[in-house]
Amino acid sequence: MKTKEMVFAALFAALIGVLGMIPPIPLGFIPVPITAQTLGVMLAGSFLGKKTGSLSLILFIVLVALGLPLLSGGRGGFSALVGPSAGYILSWPVAAFCIGYATEKVWSNVKTWKIIIINLVFGVILVSLIGAPVMALITHTSIWAGLVGATAFLPGDCIKAVIAAIIALQLKAVSPIEEK
């Protein structure tokens, strides 16, 4: 791994931690709050690519597990990774990898709408399909109820997908993703 990739991975882990400083929006009907951190997940995948993007999220999760209060609301420690948000948080490296993989495939002929669709499929739908069932299992509710509750995240996550795509394309010149 190149030094530049390690620096980018560390910077994005820090960026996602900074996004965690934005206060979460709690919902009364689901124990997982709305946060800005999924914006960082989508941005990591679409700007850094599959390898560095997923590495940045793995680093972030390791730092959280070690006790750093990087999750929204100042949460950290292993207990944060086994609570209702666990499935969402643990899906982030997978989402960043998938977003990065798809982005790398279209990078030579990239358009904003392509990155938006990639972010919607892997940064919104995939994260919900992993996070909601895990949340339902942890809270002893039905998986269907978890998936229905997760629809509350869709409007904000769609906005974050568009923002991440626009930022990634504006920074394309300095992205570590290589043209093929």
Automatic annotation (TrEMBL):
Keyword Repeat belongs to the record: no
Keyword set includes Transferase: no
Main location: membrane
Membrane topology: Multi-pass membrane protein
Gene3D superfamilies assigned: 1.10.1760.20
Family of the protein in this entry: Belongs to the BioY family.
Name by which UniProt lists this protein: Biotin transporter
